[in-house]
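dumping the sequnces here before i forget
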Amino acid sequence: MRLEMGHIYIKDIQFASESKIEDGILYVSEEAVKAVALEDEKIKSVSFDIAKPGESVRITPVKDVIEPRVKVEGRGGIFPGVISKVDTVGEGKTYALKGMAVVTAGKIVGFQEGIIDMTGPGADYTPFSKTLNLVMVCEPIDNIKQHEYEKAVRFAGFRVATYIGELARDLTPDETKVYETCTIKEGMEKYPDLPRVAYVQMLQSQGLLHDTYVYGVDAKKIVPTILSPTEIMDGAIVSGNCVSACDKNPTYVHLNNPVVHDLFEQHGKTLNFVCQIITNENVYLADKQRSSDWTAKLCKMLDLDGVIVSQEGFGNPDTDLIMNCKKIEAEGVKTVIITDEYAGRDGKSQSLADADQAADAVVTGGNANQVVILPKLDKVIGTLDYVTKIAGASEETLREDGSLEVELQVLTGATNETGFNKLSAR
Amino acid sequence: MNRGKYIVLTNNPLVFDKLEKTHEVIYLETTYEGLLREVRDRIHDGHLLLTHPLSGSVKPNETPYKSVLISAGKEEVDRRSLTIIENAIDACHKFQDKTGRYGESVLEDFQLIDWTLLESGLASADAW
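..and the predicted 3d for all of it:
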């Protein structure tokens, strides 16, 4: 599959009477985006705001972060099975609005976290302090069930992102990148001496606020399967989860998955990037066995030499991670696993809830229990009402001077397990 | 062993309310860790662990609620079940206990999340 990605750099976002993109500035008609969000009758009201890097703004509780895109050539449309029809995507031409994001916020449950600080120490930990954010806070109709509210906010975000993406349809991209995958046979003939490498992506799939969708299908109900890595760039995988915000993949991360992009960077040079394998992280142990058996089986059938495995979440998925690693290694395929750690506030506890000798090549996204102090910021988009209830917070969280003492867990994307974060060590 | 048969161990009143008439449910008024210890005792007794004890991203000691499925039948002690439950009990100590400070509506949200996590396990268990 061959996908041309056109990047359109957004330098500023402003509210205006008409929505358009001109000279890198995104003008947003508040009235128009409100109408798009309110298409769902389960949303009573929505407010839009703009948060820019460096501003004294805190956004919370964040549900999802989405990069607007538009498909200008080729089969299907953005977010297949969700917004567009279910046609297979990943070929043709797609434009992405770089440097900006649509951020959805809204309290679905009382302990919901997800903080994006646009300045200060918190901004150093979340990658979304660097994007111009069009933030939408959705209020549901009265007496709505949490499931319905979650779904309504999820879809409203995708609709608004799609509306914004459409504004770029007739523009000329500032930069174009081409991503091309081979068929199995082509790859073997073209790169006979390069190691055959795939990306195994584990998708969060446990229940309300813990779900992921593939072409609209709840990932709990998939068996491991193969994607062309270009499919994710058109929104084949979207997020429905936000609990423990540090290590969940917002839709933005699925669209821009750094493992996929880095493997493409090396494709044809140091390795042959064969495909992406997706699997799930169900709570039922027999499901884990089936999925890890199948993932290892696919690796073997594809004659892979190595895989990179990324996890999503904490605890339960640690078991899937180790099962995948162990079984894939047992098939003679080398693994590198990407995770994050819950090593306690002092960093001295066991990092994962499972382990095995086969897991001898591990990349970490950081310790989610690490404590940070977030100073009081001038403006809050959303609400701080629940901040003492969120993961990684405590009674002492909201301090007298208005600052927050929290663990990294609360910051959206702080310890992301695809490497889409700011923590590193040298 | 008939794998279709299972027992629900829970300290979540919502789970008990929803399942008590249709399922074998053991409701225990205990903490998150206390519930995991009860599960461990039953694994030592030969029950098989069927769902992951650390299901969900709401951490131990942050949510007070936990529901776990184990097999109704007993066999020899399953070492894998034992490893998973022991690691889960260990993990409880990494998180500060905040369970005493929530209002009623937050507790209800925690109950709901625990229920949806269990529900996804029940859907798989009932497929056998």
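Residues 2-410 of chain A form one domain.
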